[in-house]
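Appendix C reproduces, verbatim, an entry submitted by the partner laboratory led by Prof. M.T., so that reviewers can inspect both the input and the predicted structure.
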Amino acid sequence: MSAPSKHVPNPDPASVASVPALEPGDRLTAAEFERRYDAMPDLKKAELIEGVVYMPSPVRYQLHSAPHSDIVTWLGVYAASTPGVAKADNATVRLDQDNEPQPDALLRIETQCGGQTRISDDDYVEGPPELIAEVASSSVSFDLHTKRHVYRRSGVREYVVWRVLDREIDWFILREGNYDRLSPADDGLLRSEMFPGLWLDAAALLRGDLQTVLAALNRGLQTPEHAAFVRRLAQAGKP
């Protein structure tokens, strides 16, 4: 199952009052970041990247919210059709002592099926998800520089970035410790190497044609490669 965006364990009001608020630019350990985050139940999103706290500005509709929703729908349909694969939306991910990002969306192979992540006892994703997707503004975005470095170093196998202002989608594949850009096939579709059948019509996604995006995905889900992947996951998940 997918992890919620944030675990809030109903903190005692007296103890919360004594916890300093998170502020952008704070330099914290992962443990202190979580302590302050849990003490701010109304906070929607904060990330710890290379030991620095980042808190995004209010979310705009066309520049983030709508693209975010389309990405989540695309990945959600794939996960629903692929037992052993789980999705999450804005889940905090524990990567290491300096990095706890909250990516816009992720896909993970479930732990019992051989995935890289686990769900901790306090309900966080731990370890690098196999695929992370982020909605960014442009090529100068934080997501394409510092975050990409962190995800590569941590072992995130595939990283998808939708650059809304540039009207471009970058799909990076981890190969021998470096991110290579995934090239489209002859039919123009991008095809995941980690998740067989996860096909993307990037041009349709950029123009907001979700129906065509899902039609391309459904073709991928009908392939022998996807069926074989589902069988492998089922076999790996047997006790």
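Residues 61-80 form the longest helix (20 residues). Additional entries are available on request from the coordinating office.
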